[in-house]
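Hey, I was hoping to borrow your eyes for a little while. A protein chain has come my way and I'm curious about its shape. Take your time with it, there's no hurry, and the full record follows here:
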Amino acid sequence: MVKWMTVAAALFAALGIGAAVGRPPAGRGADAKAPPDGEKKPKGAVKEGTVADVVGAHTWTLMSVNTRKGLVSLCEGGTAGDPGGAARLQVTEHGYEPCGLVVSDLPATEAEVSLDGKPAKLADLKPDMAVTVQLAKGSVKVTKITALSKSDLTRPSIWKVKVADPKQNTVTVTSAALGLTLKNLAVTEGTRAKVAIPIQANAAPKFHPLDLETLKTGASVGLEFRYDAKTDEFVLGSILTIASK
């Protein structure tokens, strides 16, 4: 049995991700219990993909909407009223493990919006609604948002470090449940390590420059991406890790 808990992160209010890719829905609330996604195996081999592939294939929880700028942020699980609450720790018989995906600041000014099967506007969307999004071909701009006012929440996905390369400043992560590997994610000066302290699971994680030397193969991580308007790409904003004992 797994219990996943919100890790508050006030500094990531600007940061803000999962479909029902064969995953049963979890109950609402941070105390919902169910087998972790990482325990299930995909039907096919694990494939290489992109963040855009995950965004377009997933059912998300709407994290926030900025109607003035036309931006939406997505996460897995419930926001619990906390804009930075999507990065999580899961508790298993093996201890605490980071998990979950966040994607923030997706441009959606021209998106076609529907809510419960009816035409709607961005202003009609509220946090904790279940949404799927469609991206423009060759871009990460949102062209369509389909939202449900009442729906079970997706559980945070489990990602494992496959390769951390300090020389190339890249990290490769994989999700067995989603059958997907995100290869050679660029680690920039702006990428931060978001370090959670298990015995203080509801406290704000501490932020540090990300040291790839500390990311061990097989370690579980939570991932937070944001949209970069200059490059029209997703960039890695932070990686959630566990504090060393």
About this structure: Confidence is low (pLDDT under 50) at residues 1-42, 81-86. The chain has one domain: 2-24+38-242. Helices lie at 51-57. The longest strand covers residues 233-242.
